[in-house]
Design brief:
The structure holds two protein chains of two kinds. Chain A is about 65% helix and about 0% strand. By secondary structure, chain A is mostly helical. Chain A has two domains: about 20-165, Cyclin-like (Cyclin A, domain 1, Orthogonal Bundle); about 170-265, Cyclin A, domain 1. In chain A, helix 3 packs across helix 5, helix 4 (about 55-65) packs across helix 5 (about 80-95) and helix 9 packs antiparallel against helix 10 (about 185-200). The longest helix of chain A has 24 residues, at about 245-270. Chain A is globular, with a radius of gyration of 20 Å. Chain A starts with 12 loop residues before the first helix and ends with a helix. By secondary structure, chain B is of the alpha+beta class. Mean pLDDT of chain B is about 80; it is low at about 50-65 and about 440-450. Chain B has helices spanning about 10-50, 55-60, 65-70, 125-130, 135-145, 175-180, 190-210, 260-265, 270-285, 295-310, 340-345, 355-360, 375, 400-405, and strands spanning about 90-100, 105-110, 115-125, 155-160, 165-170, 175, 210-215, 220-225, 230, 240, 330, 425-430. Among the domains of chain B are: about 90-170, Phosphorylase Kinase, domain 1, CATH 3.30.200.20; about 175-395, Transferase(Phosphotransferase), domain 1, CATH 1.10.510.10. The longest helix of chain B is centred in the first third of the chain and has 41 residues, at about 10-50. The chains are: A mainly alpha, B alpha+beta. Chain B: It catalyses: L-threonyl-[protein] + ATP = O-phospho-L-threonyl-[protein] + ADP + H(+); L-seryl-[protein] + ATP = O-phospho-L-seryl-[protein] + ADP + H(+). Chain B: Its EC number is 2.7.11.22. Chain B: This is cyclin-dependent kinase.
Chain lengths: ~290, ~450
């Protein structure tokens, strides 16, 4: 069977119903928090490594695939930050922009030193001396091996299914097809569309594992056009892009809910880091137990 | 990243781990049973509802309402499968070794549960440097994308007990063109060559339209089954066509099939390097033996120039700008009007004028003069008599891969490392055609130099 180059492998119902972490007794809300934080960690690390967004997006999709399903990885066994680092390393290997294990390790060491897991772009843009965060050769050797070990784990859990098809270019093609580029605010519209596609990467509903790129692109355009005030055809134009009303509605609602979710997360973890290691997670669970006993 | 130390585990922890693991397994099983029960329930419910002439359904599906609505528009549905963990390699039982490829060992095996015969390719793991080998990762990724009738099918990737045992499970084909030709008394007939070349070119065209460069096309990488179907294998050197002006390694393609621009150190090249290899394979099919067997890079170039003629400013304007061209002494003024190729290879006895013409086009020194794969498919050669043979009429042969270990005589694909440097040494080609008079004239062909 010739696979469509526009399609992604999607998670099955069984994979979406539960996860290795939930089977290990990790509360679902904590799982969501950690997944959300590790997707943002990947995004921040990718930005610091000067990687194109396509490579970062692939890494986030890979790590999302890793954490779902009863046979997926469990947060009780694997450090979330390590999974993020190895996913990003894998994605760069398949791209035209390979990065050395050393660069990846150093960037994650820097992000690990920050007091928060909500990386504001301003925070990352501050010019600090990068050398101050370089790890020692001994540490590097240990972390390199950890990076490679987790890489193998990811490959095993995913059965080497790293294929990702992304909706970025597709959305621009759709905008062209909708003939909106003559509009004075067209470039704003395109930017918002891409921003929504990036938002989808962070969705706790794992939109990239449940919907195909044409549907994601259509929903992003729908929302961006509403927001910017660009009028789209009065007919059911989304069907031209093979998206039915129901799927469109689902993704639109999913995209809109990310903002509220993110704000709540930020409030919930104000002044502390989301635990991104097995040790940190155990401490968090211990603290929760103590609170409920009191 | 500094997680809880794995080394601090004591006996109690191990027992605890085992207990947890067991519990998890139990939960997984229960979950699965529950899902199955639910699926059955919904299936039953659906059946019931379809059995029942339900009143409720009338509301939405009555003919009047349906007529009032516009016809349901059909939307495309995209499929790309899903994912699950790798299976264990012990699902397969190894039968015999086939060969050692550019980065792994290939063997013939049987899947225990189905009895199906497959080819297993074990990835050579050297992951101390960069983790999982990037070449293997690329090959897997290419094969997953390149599903085509004439490209070998990657079924799955399995793993062994130890972490670094990774095995590609691929369909098994009885022959490779190299071994097959080595064991044939006469080369293939022309209609057979046409069938093979057309299948091969259609696969190359598919790869190129999907932005994949194979970079190691050669007869030992081309498989053939007993039903006359050819498939390209070994994507260990393949990669996606990078953005323009990204430097590529010129250390690709096995020497005898390597295009002259690669030998001359070009760091920017394109699909035309595969077309050159295609030409070498076409010539080899007609001839019965590799047509450009150089012993090293320098000799390879001289072999190419002897067979295909010398480059000139007119036929290959970019030639002198290539990194290694500076160290060559090629007579600049000499204009070889007639390509020596037909005589050098004795083509008149092996193919028609059209066939020889196609080979000349494929083996054009200037990469920009070579046709693309689609142009090759439309070439008059495939339309003139004799027509390509039907695959089902293709002769069958005893399979070496299925019975015994292969011999290996062609040089390996280049390994990662230093690019070949012709520079520094002065290589003189000015006498390349000299002294031919002294050579024995036989076998019906003679080199004539324009």
């Amino acid at each position: 069977m010739q696979l469509s180059p526009l399609a992604n492998p999607l998670a099955t119902v069984a994979q979406l119903e539960t996860s290795g972490s939930q089977l290990d007794g990790i509360p679902a809300d904590l799982e969501d928090s950690i997944r959300f934080a590790s997707a943002r960690l990947t995004q921040a690390a990718g930005a610091l490594l000067r990687l194109p967004q396509e490579v970062i997006a692939q890494a986030i999709i890979v790590l999302s695939r890793f954490w779902v399903g009863p046979e997926g990885g469990s947060l009780a066994e694997h450090d979330a930050d390590q999974v993020s680092a190895s996913s990003l390393y894998l994605a760069t290997k398949l791209s035209a922009f390979p990065k050395s294990a050393r660069s990846v390790v150093n960037v994650y060491a820097y992000l690990d030193s920050l007091p928060t897991t909500f990386f504001e772009p301003e925070l990352l843009r501050q010019h600090k001396k990068a050398e101050e965060y370089y790890v020692s050769e001994g540490t590097l050797e240990k972390r390199r091996m950890a990076l490679f070990n987790m890489e193998q784990q990811i490959l095993r859990v995913l059965g080497f299914q790293l294929q990702t098809s992304l909706p970025y270019i597709l959305s621009i093609t759709y905008l062209q097809a909708l003939d909106v580029f003559s509009h004075p605010r067209a470039s704003e519209l395109a930017k918002r569309t891409v921003a929504y596609l990036n938002t989808a990467l962070l969705s706790p509903q794992l939109l990239y594992l449940t919907h195909q790129p044409p549907c994601l692109a259509t929903a992003a355009i729908y929302l961006a056009a509403k927001e910017i005030g660009v009028k789209l055809p009065d007919v059911e134009w989304w069907e031209v892009f093979d998206t039915d009303r129901e799927d469109l509605g689902f993704v639109v609602v999913g995209l809109l809910s990310v903002e509220t979710f993110a704000a709540e997360e930020q409030k919930k973890w104000l002044g502390r880091r989301v635990p991104l290691t097995v040790g940190g997670l155990e401490a968090e669970l211990g603290m929760r137990r103590n609170l409920s006993e009191e | 990243m500094a997680g809880a130390s794995r080394w601090a585990d004591d006996e109690a922890d191990k027992a605890e781990d085992a207990r947890r693991k067991k519990e998890k397994e139990e939960k997984k099983r229960q979950k699965l049973a529950k899902q199955q029960a639910e699926q059955e329930a919904t299936a039953r419910a659906q059946q019931e509802s379809s059995d029942r002439p339900a009143k409720r359904r009338k509301l939405s599906a009555s003919p009047e309402v349906e007529n009032a609505k516009p016809a349901e528009r059909k939307l495309l549905r995209f499929e790309a499968g899903g994912w699950g963990p790798c299976r264990h390699v012990n699902n397969f039982e190894t039968l015999n070794q086939i060969e050692e490829g550019s980065y792994g060992w290939v063997s013939r095996a049987r899947e225990s549960s189905t009895g199906e015969i497959v080819a297993l390719k074990k990835v050579k793991m050297d992951y101390k440097e960069d983790g999982f080998p990037i070449t293997a990762l690329r090959e897997i990724s290419m094969l997953q994308k390149a599903r085509h009738a004439h490209i070998v099918d990657l079924r799955e990737v399995v793993m062994g007990d130890s972490f670094d045992e990774v095995v590609l499970v691929m369909e098994f084909l009885e022959h490779d063109l190299k071994t097959l030709q080595d064991n044939m008394a006469d080369p293939f007939g022309e209609s057979e060559v046409k069938l093979l070349l057309r299948q091969l070119t259609s696969a190359v065209s598919f790869l190129h339209t999907n932005h994949i460069l194979h970079r190691d096309l050669k007869t030992s990488n081309i498989l053939l089954n007993n039903r006359g179907v050819l498939k390209i294998a070994d994507f260990g050197m393949a990669r996606f066509i990078p953005p323009p002006h990204a430097p590529l390694t010129q250390l690709v393609v096995t020497l005898w099939y390597r295009a002259p621009e690669l030998l001359l150190g070009a760091t920017e090249y394109d699909t035309s390097v595969d077309i050159w290899s295609l030409g070498c394979i076409f010539g080899e099919l007609l001839h019965g033996n590799p047509i450009l067997p150089g012993a090293n890079e320098v000799e390879q170039l001289s072999t190419i120039f002897r067979v295909c003629g010398l480059p000139s400013e007119k036929s290959w304007p970019g030639f002198w700008r290539l990194p290694n061209a500076k160290s060559l002494k090629v007579p600049r003024d000499r204009e070889t009007r007639i390509s020596p190729l037909r005589e050098a290879l004795g083509l008149h006895s092996r193919t028609t004028n059209t066939g020889a013409g196609l080979l000349e086009e494929l083996l054009a020194l200037n990469p920009e003069s070579r046709p693309d794969a689609d142009q090759v498919l439309r070439h008059a050669y495939f339309k003139e008599s004799p027509k390509p043979i039907a695959p089902e009429m293709f002769p069958t042969f005893p399979s070496k891969a299925g019975l015994e270990k292969r011999r290996k005589r062609s040089p390996h694909a280049p390994r990662r490392g230093d690019a070949p440097a012709l520079a520094g040494k002065d290589i003189d080609f000015s006498n390349i055609f000299a002294g031919r008079e002294d050579e024995q004239k036989g076998a019906g062909f003679r080199l004539r130099v324009g």
